[in-house]
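Dear Dr. H.,

I hope your travels went smoothly. While you were away I took the liberty of generating a structure for the chain from your last submission, since the lab meeting agenda had it listed for discussion. I wanted you to have the full record in hand beforehand rather than looking at slides cold. The sequence, exactly as received, is reproduced here:
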Amino acid sequence: YKTDSTNLYLTKSIKSLIFMASAVFNDIKRDQPNWRDQVAKYEPEKSIEWGDWNSNNKKRMSQIEFAEFLDEHIADIVGDGKRAPSAAEVLESVTNLNDVRNVTFGSKVSLTNGMASFVYTEKSPSGAVSEGHVSVPAEFLIGIPVFEDGPAYTIRAKLRYRIDRSSGELRLWYELQQLQRVFAKAIEAHVQKLEELLSGELPIYSGR
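The corresponding predicted structure, in token form, is as follows:
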């Protein structure tokens, strides 16, 4: 359906994490009005990994929910050989976190190895009280694609927590860092691919 009046427009919103390409087949030419009502839109499908991590970003979870989420997405976690833990180290932390149930958390201590250690007390059926601690990474890295079949990007996730003073319940969540910057890189790569495929085929503009 391409004609001499066909143009391609690239619409993006880094803040809203939106990217779309729209081909207007009967576009306006200089001094030539047109209807601009024949349009084909292309929005690249975001990856499952991107959807999972974004939908749970900043979502407060119980220790068990947090452990189960990390366990299900352990393949996305990558280490850097420095402060960011490996997937195996995170898995070990998740296992320990899963083993701690029906306890009262009291405080958190930041360790020099980049882990956060939570102190808890546990009461046995006989009434005996014991104290222990469980450690989880203060931050970790994930490597996931933004779009399906696209390259993976490294994103830093910082651990956040809150201990209820009255109940001693621990709530955990993570906050993904610089998402807009990562999305901008993914868009840039996608735009470059479109320009390579459509070079010389039709004019390409930013915006609509």
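Two observations you may find useful: Residues 7-43+186-206 form one domain. The chain has two domains: 7-43+186-206, 62-177.

With kind regards,
E. W.
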